[in-house]
Design goal:
Layout lengths: L1 H25 L11 H15 L9 E6 L2 E8 L2 H12 L6 E9 L2
Parallel strand pairs: 2-3
Antiparallel strand pairs: 1-2
Length: 108
């Protein structure tokens, strides 16, 4: 019985020791590099947020991507007015250099 408890304690110690080591290794983020600048990620998130809170726009139908400040809107909305409104909302976000809405169409 004592040997079983010692074996279980040893096994738990090995498992827990491995977990803490792997977490310690993961905390060094200096080598990790993103291909997408933080500003592009922030712009995409902000545009999506603004579209979601704007009356008259079905934001679930609009996909947003950003590369070097160029925001691309794609999808299909109900009207040309919604396309224009979505473009205006995107242009108003800080950091947006240009908005490409060629892939955003309307059903009317």
């Amino acid at each position: 019985m004592k040997q079983q408890l010692c074996a279980m304690a040893f096994g738990i110690a090995l498992v827990c020791g491995g977990v803490s080591t792997s977490f310690a290794a993961d905390t060094d983020m200096s080598a990790a590099k993103s291909e997408q600048p933080v500003t592009d990620t922030w712009i995409t998130t902000k545009v999506k947020s603004e579209l979601a809170t704007t009356d008259g726009i079905s934001s679930m139908d609009i996909a947003v991507t950003t590369k070097n400040g160029l925001v691309t809107l794609s999808g299909q909305v109900n009207s040309k007015a919604q396309v224009q409104k979505a473009v205006a909302v995107a242009k108003a976000v800080k950091g947006v250099q240009k908005v490409d809405s060629a892939a955003l169409s309307s059903r009317d």
